[in-house]
Sequence to fold (217 residues):
Amino acid sequence: MTEIILIILAYLIGSIPTAVWISKSVFGIDIREYGSGNAGATNTFRILGSKWGSIVMLVDVTKGIIATSLYIFIPYYLTDELARTNFMIALGMMAILGHIFPIFANFRGGKGVATLLGMALAIQPVVALLCLVVFLVTLLSTRFVSLSSMLAGIAFMVLILFIFHEKETVYRLFAIIVALMVVITHQKNIGRLLKGTENKVPSFKNRIKRTLLVLFK
Fold:
């Protein structure tokens, strides 16, 4: 019974529509009516800028960490590593499901990449941090959030299966599902990337330039 309650709670945590609440409360718009129509960090970067995109990403990552860590309320999972990992995956998946289909925002959310990162940080921090490096290197070199997310998702699968040689079958299957899910949910972005119409986040150089213009105009 406790497991069911925690799984439901994980879904509710994932359902917190960060991008929607910020766009409505700060800008008076619904982020889902602009850009790609998604309520996630990528579309927030595109529509509201890097500042608010970063805030949304940070909160959504935190959602994944908190939801996946709910296992601590059941003492049994503190001593059984295999059972704990499986339960953490279940909690994390419910948080991601909540992010994609949030009950607090008419079931129209984002793609779940940031929440997935939070989940990975809670389960296997080293792998998650390496994926974050892949994300940041790609973002800094291309300024495409979508491409960065996809490569980080694929890197997660490669690291789990071939670098760390994870033996747990459920975790291996999960890594494969993650890579597929990230690519599938970014189909429109892939199309825009191939057409050369995908929007980039502002470069640090441009942001510094704009700041100086404001200060010294």
Q: What stands out?
A: Confidence is low (pLDDT under 50) at residues 211-217. The radius of gyration is 18 Å. The chain has one domain: 2-216. DSSP finds twelve helices and no strands in the chain.
